[in-house]
Design a protein that fits this description.
heterodimer; A: mainly beta; 0% helix; B: 109 residues; five-stranded antiparallel β-sheet
Chain lengths: 117, 109
């Protein structure tokens, strides 16, 4: 149990375009979903925490207007990278938790590798 | 500030034992996770410790000392597939996960 999927697995786009990444919890209801970014050879960097039906909480330094997060249902959260630039190229990973905080085990999606040309 | 320290990289031999240490200084403590992450993949859960002591799960064991702000992950009978990064993460007083930078473990035949 506790499977989280992400789509797409990888995406290549031109600079200036927007990219939407979906994160789904397949067999449980995810009260909380987390979005991470990971640059090569670095650890996970939490971007934002979203609770179903409310606005996401962004970490310091993460532009909320650039990284739009929508958590419309208990099984789906989306991250939209608007006007992507080459420096946004990274590995984006979502995780889902049945609880309301990071205290509960987080189940990770397989990640989405974004390359912006 | 909050800080989690892990060695950047370790090398071990197939069949041997390796211990990966993690020290932390956080605002409060509500548990410590260890995750395994293979290159290009998302992390997978290994263990969760909230009380002092050793928790054994097959070839992997995790130890916690809250008074010392210290944990280690012990991997026995190493296999080539254990080559991965191992991430230590602490749950702070706000129940948020604070992540270490990870330890890259290289297994040699």
């Amino acid at each position: 149990g506790a499977v989280v999927s992400q789509h797409p697995s990888w995406v290549i786009c031109k600079s200036g375009t927007s990219v939407k990444i979906e994160c789904r919890s397949l067999d449980f209801q995810a009260t909380t979903m987390f979005w991470y970014r990971q640059f090569p050879k670095q650890s996970l960097m939490l971007m934002a925490t979203s609770n179903e039906g409310s606005k996401a909480t962004y970490e310091q330094g993460v532009e909320k207007d650039k990284f739009l997060i929508n958590h419309a249902s208990l099984t789906l959260s989306t991250l939209t990278v608007t006007s992507a630039h080459p420096e946004d190229s990274s590995f984006y990973i979502c995780s889902a938790s049945p609880g309301t905080s990071g205290f509960n085990e987080q189940f990770f999606g397989p990640g989405t590798r974004l390359t912006v040309l | 500030g909050q800080n989690i320290d892990q060695p950047t990289e370790m090398t071990a031999t197939e069949g041997a034992i390796v211990q990966i240490n993690c020290t932390y200084q956080t605002s409060g403590f509500n548990g410590l996770f260890w995750y395994q992450q293979h290159a290009g993949e998302a992390p997978t859960f290994l263990s969760y410790n909230v009380l002092d002591g050793l928790e054994e799960k097959g070839r992997f064991s995790s130890f916690l000392s809250r008074s010392k702000g210290y944990s280690y992950l012990l991997l026995k009978e190493l296999q080539m597939k254990d080559s991965a990064s191992y991430l230590c993460a602490v749950v702070d007083s706000n129940y948020q996960l604070i992540w270490g930078a990870g330890t890259k473990l290289i297994i040699k035949p």
